[in-house]
């Protein structure tokens, strides 16, 4: 989920089938469901004798077949619905890509004290890897199945249904969505819209063959949020744009690590991004870094932390530190390379630093109670309120926004007619290595 630079930053930047009654069980047994071997045998003997008297031939008893034990699934279904915890019964989940530190941090890889600190974080790491595996399996399914002609609502629901199924929390009971599930609403931003767009109820927008769509997915387990995004384009003419942004993201990841300065990382990203150009309809466009969009740290139950990773060179001397979790995301554009807020809002989050306000609207009080119990400080969208059965909540929602309790995140767009792309990974700055937790075979 994109972090927009503040004005000050802009200046510095310049289951399973049911059991059925088996043939051969009498109706009483099938009804009661309790099998008593002695009574069953005597009933069968009496039945056999009666049949022998009528037909002159004894009927052989049928042997009951032992019930087969259900085996744990070993592969994911299509669409993804098998719990990640069932696919990994040991509850030890795959690591992301581990990258050793270099230069003056090289010692960390072999340092016994640092390895000990890493081992103390086993629960933290396992939650993150659980969320990351759910993310990988969901997005890889999405990449294969998203096609032009689908509605954005259909696409978003398919992704979110998969995430909730894989982590085993549907989010319909109070507090369930805060145990595991969506880390934020699925972003489906098209063409000149770079971020923060997901369909609201009634949205009938259809994905077109010539669209460039950013798919931004957040998955969390116990508040550990994996934030990773990719871009889909069905027309190969957009390949240079996608290649530029993917290369820039990987460059940012390459230079990330303990003591790396954020402004310098932005410079590396910009250099790679802006070495690309794209020809569209006979006109060549330079690919620009969107200078007022940033990567960011991720905190428990909070998608935007206190540090920002610019995607253009800046004088920010803030360092990455041991224990930080960063979303390294880059955005490229054929337009101005600058976004502004425009359009109907879908993304919201309760502010962790929200002021205490005596709310006068009963609808606002009621809605805030729903938000607190279901989302806490995790971002959500209006579709999630609809899913919980909330109705006629817009007045109360707007009141919460006006009072500074809830933050609204409007869509972020470049100039009309331009095209934007995004790639993103979550990295853990561990004591011994940096782990690109969301890395997969896809990107």
From TrEMBL:
It is found in: Cytoplasm. Binds 2 divalent metal cations per subunit. Has a high-affinity and a low affinity metal-binding site. The true nature of the physiological cofactor is under debate. The enzyme is active with cobalt, zinc, manganese or divalent iron ions. Most likely, methionine aminopeptidases function as mononuclear Fe(2+)-metalloproteases under physiological conditions, and the catalytically relevant metal-binding site has been assigned to the histidine-containing high-affinity site. It catalyses: Release of N-terminal amino acids, preferentially methionine, from peptides and arylamides. A divalent metal cation 1 binds at residues 216, 227, 424. InterPro entries: Creatinase/aminopeptidase-like, Met_Aminopeptidase_Type2, Pept_M24, Pept_M24_MAP, Pept_M24A_MAP2, Pept_M24A_MAP2_BS, WH-like_DNA-bd_sf, WH_DNA-bd_sf. Pfam families: Peptidase_M24. Residues 1-89 are annotated as: Disordered. Residues 128-429 form the Peptidase M24 domain. A divalent metal cation 2 binds at residues 227, 296, 329, 424. GO terms for molecular function: initiator methionyl aminopeptidase activity; metal ion binding; metalloaminopeptidase activity. Substrate binds at residues 196, 304. GO terms for cellular component: cytoplasm. Belongs to the peptidase M24A family. Methionine aminopeptidase eukaryotic type 2 subfamily. HAMAP family: MetAP_2_euk. This is Methionine aminopeptidase 2. It comes from Podospora australis.
